[in-house]
Amino acid sequence: MEQYNGTRKFLIATHGTFSAGVKSSLELIIGETAQLFILQAYNNENTSIEYEIKIIMEQVGEQDELIVFSDIMGGSVTNQLVQHALRPNVHIVSGFNLPLLIEIILGDTNTPVDELIETAISNAKEQMVYVNKLLSTPSNNDFND
Amino acid sequence: MISKEYIIMDSQGIHARPAASLIKLTKNYKSTFDLKKDDKTIRLNSMLNILSMGIKGGETIAVLIDGEDEVVAAEAIDTFFTELGKMIKN
């Protein structure tokens, strides 16, 4: 994979204000994150997703890496990102959760981005747990926030 | 390599926010950091790695610091756990 010498940047793109809410949760846990954009699709009827993507992409240089977190695979937000943002230095991950965001944003910047994303997805999937079932197993009766 | 042991005094154990803070702290040093509980050791480069340890209040953990700046890094780890109200064992 090609190496980029710029900055690793992040975009959370969702239907409506989900991205702003997730950003709030993220900052509560890890503090303010530099180079984090959010896209709240359909929240402003006067602005198209395409235009919002364009404004964000103008702030991503050719040597930067952009990791995009979108809400639904097959949804219009992800589809528009694929259409208007995807290029060699842009990586789109759909169906994100908060643990995935934290793993990637706090990830080692020296780790190749594809390796970082694949490991984080694998670990973050394990965070989706039916807690009642977990608690019904005698050896797993504790959990932390 | 420096090894430091701590008893976790917080009844909530090490949860998301302190785990994330710990990861951010390690980024300030060149040393590598490992966290050990019982016979399990994880690299301190992932919040989910820490949470997977299920560290509860009252349990003892060890932090292993290895690298050229391990002395100052160990001091920072001490400060971190002290400020979080954890008991430094040695």
From TrEMBL, chain A:
The keyword Membrane does not apply. Residues 7-128 form the PTS EIIA type-4 domain. One of its GO terms (cellular component) is membrane. The keyword Repeat does not apply. One of its GO terms (biological process) is phosphoenolpyruvate-dependent sugar phosphotransferase system. Keywords: Transferase. GO terms for molecular function: transferase activity. Signal peptide: none annotated. Coiled coil: none annotated. This is Fructoselysine and glucoselysine-specific PTS system IIA component. It comes from Mucilaginibacter frigoritolerans. The lineage of its organism: Bacteria, Pseudomonadati, Bacteroidota, Sphingobacteriia, Sphingobacteriales.
TrEMBL record, chain B:
It comes from the Bacteria. One of its GO terms (cellular component) is cytoplasm. Coiled coil: none annotated. GO terms for biological process: phosphoenolpyruvate-dependent sugar phosphotransferase system. Signal peptide: none annotated. Keywords: Cytoplasm, Phosphotransferase system. Residues 1-87 form the HPr domain. InterPro entries: HPr, HPr-like, HPr-like_sf, PTS_HPr_His_P_site, PTS_HPr_Ser_P_site. It is found in: Cytoplasm. Belongs to the HPr family. This is Phosphocarrier protein. It comes from Mucilaginibacter frigoritolerans. The lineage of its organism: Bacteria, Pseudomonadati, Bacteroidota, Sphingobacteriia, Sphingobacteriales.
